[in-house]
Known about the structure:
The protein has 327 residues and is α/β, with parallel strands linked by helices. The chain has a single domain, classed as TIM Barrel (Alpha-Beta Barrel), CATH 3.20.20.70. Helices cover 39% and strands 19% of the residues. The protein has eleven helices and twelve strands. Strands 1, 2, 3, 4, 5, 8, 9, 10, 11 and 12 form a ten-stranded mixed β-sheet that branches. A two-stranded antiparallel sheet has the order 6-7. Strand 4 (75-81), helix 3 and strand 5 form a beta-alpha-beta unit.
Amino acid sequence: MLELLRRPRRLRSSETLRQLVREVTIEPWQCIYPMFVSEKVAGPTPIVSMPNVFQYDVEHFIEEAKTAHADGIRAILVFGIPANKDDVASGAYAQEGIVQRAIRRLKQEVSDLIIIADVCLCEYMEHGHCGIVQRSTDGYEIVNDPSVELIARAAVSLAEAGADIVAPSDMMDGRVSVIRRELDLRGFQTVPVMSYAAKFCSAFYGPFREAAESTPHFGDRRSYQMDSANANEALREVALDLEEGADLLIVKPGLPYLDILWRVKERFKMPTAVYNVSGEYAMLKAAAQNGWIDEKNAVLELMTSFRRAGADLIITYWAREIAKWIG
């Protein structure tokens, strides 16, 4: 009798066969494209630490979004940089705020592009924190509940401007429930909340803070963003956000937190996005520019790892390139 030899390589012998049995795939519509619109620039302004990423004025923001849509991108995530900041983040909820104006214009140009509005206060606060700062005996405190009221006010303002989805990224306690309540009271029952449900305090956010001009002027964000060591706490945070009415979830960052992404998707089985953050982007870009790595193959491998770990959607600065590579 012949000895049976298992040969897994039989299914790897050609690209067509490999495609036939591939367990996860990447499609352009699964990639969400982050964009920065600024009142302080007159044209596309490069972000030094993020090659091929720009701050845009409203006109060029519209053109870039339209081009991304033509490339196959179906959703963008919008961040705003105001001309002036204050200690109550008034630009975040101003009717004529930079993001509000950009959304209204873009909706007139491309009706079927999903616009996800990031909801946070840090870009609009003069001190760069994601909430209201009060002096305390220890120096300062980021106060939770008054901050949540402003965050909800910003979410309503963005929905009024035409945002299809609002995405609170601050990690304040209870903000999803307050946003959901305020949206519903004002007739926006159909606007989903895409919560940054498990957002960790990370060293990988540095380039983003250059792009969004949101570096804290003092201290750090460890009192409200999550400790990178805590996986069980991440699951508790996600559970709370779902109880409060979150419709979609975000895990951020991506690459160092694939285990969190996997646990969140396995436990809750909800639509889940991962944010391939600026530091991850900058590292790989630098390696590619030095000729140390093949950018296209490395990026596609990275995106595959996100999908394999459970991501339904990937927020990535490579969204447009991916759409061209696989479109």
